[in-house]
Amino acid sequence: MDELQRRLLEQGEDASIILTTNSQGKCQTSIYNIHGLRVTGLTAFAESNVPMNILSKIVAGHASVLMTFYYLKHSTAHVSEILSEAHQKIHTISSDEFRKSLKEASIDNLKRKVVANEDYTLDEISSSSLQPDQFFDVGVGLCPKGGAACAEGTRRVGGRYSPVKGGPRNCVQCRFLISGEPWLIPLTLKQQHLIAKTQTLTARHKELDQQSEEAKIARLEAKKAGDTAELTRCRQALKALENEIETTEAHLHDRFADITAVHSLIKSIRELPNSGGGENLPALIAHENFSDHGYGEGTRFQQLDTVLNRPVFTGGQNSRRIACYGT
Fold first, then answer.
1. Within 13 Å, how many C-alpha atoms sit on residue 38's CB side?
2. Coiled-coil region(s) at which residues (predicted)?
3. Fewest beta carbons less than 10 Å away: which of 154, 162, 184, 219?
4. Structure confidence by residue, pLDDT tens digits, 268-307
């Protein structure tokens, strides 16, 4: 501690880490302890990717690497970041392996490990009309068109096509989307996000309805009073409210349609004949069957907490993809 304080003073730091000294003028008590400084220093070196053999033998001077591990105390934030990065790498590997497994798959094999919004998408993959090498991970599945066919994502009668329902990058409504086990968790989290959105829109719709009723009462009173200016103002306000109500209802309709689409994908994935493994595919390990699922009631806080902590489950990069693609 004496040496540490001497060096700090030489650097011009106004620091006094020694609290009391002994009869020889040496440090007796200080604001830090040796063990704490070793823990902080070794942890900082480890998090800066100093090789463990150098950290243990040269920096710490330990006879065993296990002793060095004892001194490493990583923060919760650092552990969370490392695990999130690892989870993202696992997801990337899983989705890449999944995509590669589609190359040689027959239509029967495809139907055992892949779900699609339209069956003819699987037919085109099996017949090599769509090449898996060009598939693009959109966070909730794979886009066989490389994310460039949003303008024709809805099939109409008579062989005509129109943009994806809900707008570009709303992949869960696209006729081209294919998905499978690697995207089960992202799909579930996306559904949570959509449900949270519908609750917000529903609350806004209720608020607008109340304002509309109040505007109608004010319009009637202005009409009875013969106040032309106030009557005009009330009519304009009511018209604006009706327009916003109509827009909110349209958004609600779109979100409910998205929820239904996501639910259908999740349900189909859980019912896949190959769910749980096989054919060298990445397998989800769980202590319950995929078919054992349902919806539960929770608080608004729990729901928003799940939505806001989505990057913890999906990894930063993957969560940004989901945010870009239709949430």
1. 14
2. 203-251
3. 162
4. 888 887 544 444 444 444 444 444 556 666 777 776 776 6
Is there a single domain that holds both residue 160 and residue 105? Answer: yes
d(CA 98, CA 181): 9
139 shares its domain with 52: no
Contacts of 290 (CB under 8 A, 6+ apart): 269, 270, 271, 272, 275, 276, 284
Residue after which a domain boundary falls, among 59, 76, 93: 76
Task: List, for residues 24-75, the tens digit of each pLDDT value.
Answer: 767 667 766 766 767 777 888 877 878 877 777 777 777 777 777 767 777 7
Q: What is the band of 309 on the pLDDT scale with cuts at 50, 70, 90?
A: low
Domain that holds residue 60: 2-76
The whole-model pTM stands at 0.60
